[in-house]
Amino acid sequence: MMSSEEEADSAPYSDKLLKKQKRARQRVDAGEPRNSYSTLATNGLAPARAAHMSGGLYGAIFEGRQHFGIFRPGYAPADMLNELLGRAPADASDEPSGGDIAHRVLRDILQNRNKEFLRLSPDNNNVLANNNNDEPKEKRSPERPVSRESRPDLDDALLGLDSAGDSRTSPPPAQSAAEPLLAPKSEPEDRDSDAQRSSPRPLDVKRARVENIVSTMRASPAPQQPQVNGCKKRKLYHPQQHDGAAERYGTSHGSSAQTVSDDSEDDNERQPPIQQKLVEKNALKSQLRTMQEQLAEMQEKYMQLCNRMGQESETIENDGASSDVEQNDETVPKSEPASPAKEVPPPIPSSAPPNMLSQVMSKMMSAKMHAHAAAHPHLPPGFNGTLPMLPHLPPTDHIHPPHPHQHLNNAAAMYLNVSQKLFLEQEARMKEAVEQHQQQNNQQQRPQSNQHSPQQRQMGPTPKPPMSSELAERLDALRSNSGSVGPVTGADLEGLAEVLKSEITASLATLIDSIVTRFVHQRRIIGKQSEAAAAAAEQLNKDLMRATRMLERKSPTPKMPERPSGQMSGNNPVHHPGAPNGVPFITHNPMLMSQMNGPRAPGGAAFPLHAEAGGPGHGAQVRPPTGMFQTPPKTLGSLYSAMNGHFERENPEQNEALSLVVTPKKKRHKVTDTRITPRTVSRILGEGVGTPETKFPESPSPRPYPGGMALPTSVAIPNPSLHESQVFSPYSPFFGAGGGLARSPPAPERDSPPLPHAPVLLHPALMAAAHHASPDYMRHHHAHAPLHAAQHHPQHMDVQDPHSDCNSTDLPYDGVQPTSSTLTPMHLRKAKLMFFWVRYPSSAVLKMYFPDIKFNKNNTAQLVKWFSNFREFYYIQMEKYARQAISEGLKTAEDLHVAGDSELYRVLNLHYNRNNHIEVPPNFRYVVEQTLREFFRAIQGGKDAEQSWKKSIYKVISRLDDPVPEYFKSPNFLEQLE
DNA sequence: TTTGATCCTG
DNA sequence: CAGGATCAAA
């Protein structure tokens, strides 16, 4: 991967350079000024601010955006998909069990249904199959082999096909069966040439011609799994076919397999299940038809042969009776020394119209059938259509039945019937499967093995229905037999029928397997989530209770126009999630949420949110211990949604990663591996929680703060450049919340940098959900109030926690190994959260904290770019607020204080911690404050007139980075960000 | 010259 | 957020 990506870069780079130069030239010519630093400063800010101020936004306490009630439809499915796709190993192991069950079920069903068909079968189903098989034994029980064979496919599909190569390398037992498939039957030229070369005899030539015709007629079974190690053999056996296959499908199995894999992957993502099913159905249908046609054709040929043989008194030595494939080679030579028997097409009476022949044959068959039924050992009396099929009968039929024709005819007739029935069955099953599939989940994933799809794709000129390797093989064998050896026995036909049956069965099995598997996964995941949700719910409930209590003391924030909460918005039909535990979700009320933040401080002052509020100013002095915002678990929402099975999509709250995801597709050169994984997609779909803010029905009365604060401090001017302009919207709950920058005149000194290791905690809900988190870590969290626990043990997480502490280790927690080089939206979220600690992380640090990423030049650059973007946003905010403060007459930087509930803080939190996945580390607040002051001073001092006046600030700020908590390295952390 | 960071734009 | 341009430090 890396190599390819790297290569991809080279081109772009050169282009870049060219462009750059060009641009540079243009700029110079135009005398275009490079930067207009002052733009922001001088323009617009003041006016906008004024407007806002007049608007009187009072600080609503931080309204919890959300979180509650946010349902993330699709979450469960996504997760499931993730499970399937992301955890290859697990899947691999799981797959079988699920598959087996499905398999069994399917088999049972089919067997019951097929009993009637089976009854028909004369015995030797194997004869034909054996001709080309390397491992005839495998075929004895068609279903088994097939299933096995199919499984790899399924796995591949599920796993994203990376494993395709592996499967190829180590061909499954059934592989031999697949072999024939590789060789598309339609390569007349080659075949002819070969045939002629090897067997110049007229007969051969004739046969070749026939073969030609036949091959054209029959859709060539697409080469199933390229994983045929027996290339040589195959070549030996079917040179032409092989060639054809090579040409058409790409010479290398690997390549073809790859293609298949990729395609299937794509299909999974794009093609709706139903469509897929339909396609498959059609394919099967056509396959059946094709086979029928082929059968007819073969009948013709057979007739011809018989006639001729009768005339010539030719003895047929080997009817392909040999049960060994290998044998085939040997046998063939005997009969047709010069030419590879298998490849020699059966002679066809070109003169006789197929239809007529068929009709004639039908008549003959019916007539003779009865006559010989009794005589024929394998044909029970009721033969006509109801003979029990003995799938595993030994190839006894080598014996040439006295009346080959009849046998053949019978078999043919039966085959046709069976085919029809099977087809009907298949169709019915398909429908069922489709329905089931739909109901079970909306995942686009393509359940069945790609057995079929690849074939379809690879089909040659004649659209051919997908055929399994076994089927193809048998057909091939059949053809070979008829061609080279001569008479096709009824057994052969039956074998064919059986193959067909098993093939269908297999495909169904596969389908069912996948469905079942998915179902199982889903169940499992849901269960898991339920647990987490329950725990989370409890915790949440506690928090809420506390918050409620506190709320009583506090007055609601000023109004915010109702903001449709993600869930509330019409899109979300979601039921209100009562907590599963019976814990009602209290939320939706931002007030509550806001209260939750600072439950700890005794006099509601716990939070010096508004420093200036004056109130008990001292409160301000003490740095708010905990994060600024409460952390309502959006996770809960998702959990619940999953639990409730809400998969509806909700309004995407953010598209953060959206771009990431999207870009990938349009990328011209592989930018960072932009390939979107299903997981990513699902995440994106489920991610948005609309604006989390819960709606605020009524506008609360102004803040009760003693200081009469309600300072319109937050008079930010809507910055057009802001991505989240909503934040500034007067209608936005965020806007005007209690006070942007809190300026407390008596600002005591809180400039001292906070503790080195900011104790940031995950929201309790998150923690609860994180089973895997190190026990120690968990313990801490639970022990302390969820919100501030860490404060008391600042160090425990990063340094001292024996379990979680794995400093300088890339694989702190479960030995995470880089699995992908794709940065997903989740990674973006994580990166944003990390920004609370580090503004200038080195790439080395970043790599350490993203152990699951296989870094390369591209994604490293991307990650770095993210932080660059984060900083950009951050500094823009800082500058904006600093200017605002200045315009408001603030005299000294020291008067600038950033309160937990300040607008600035809110904005930042919204940007970096949109879903309040974590508690904002106190240190961050400090850093923000410092940054703000730096900007304030600079602007105040007129430094902003200088070209790079910000640089010095950056420098200062860059020194304020703190170590990122170790738990960020945990794979579980990422998972919790859902 | 290369690399890294910022600025600018979409 | 990503791509491109530009500057500046290495």
TrEMBL record:
Residues 1-40, 118-283, 312-356, 430-469, 554-579 are annotated as: Disordered. Keywords: DNA-binding, Homeobox, Nucleus, Transcription, Transcription regulation. Residues 134-154 have a biased composition (Basic and acidic residues). The keyword Electron transport does not apply. PROSITE patterns: HOMEO_PROSPERO (PS51818). Residues 124-133, 157-167, 436-458 have a biased composition (Low complexity). This is Prospero domain-containing protein. InterPro entries: Homeo_prospero_dom (IPR023082), Homeo_prospero_dom_sf (IPR037131), Homeodomain-like_sf (IPR009057), Prospero_homeodomain (IPR039350). Residues 252-261 have a biased composition (Polar residues). Residues 343-352 have a biased composition (Pro residues). The keyword Transcription regulation applies. Residues 820-978 form the Prospero domain. Gene3D superfamilies: Homeo-prospero domain. It is found in: Nucleus. It comes from the Eukaryota.
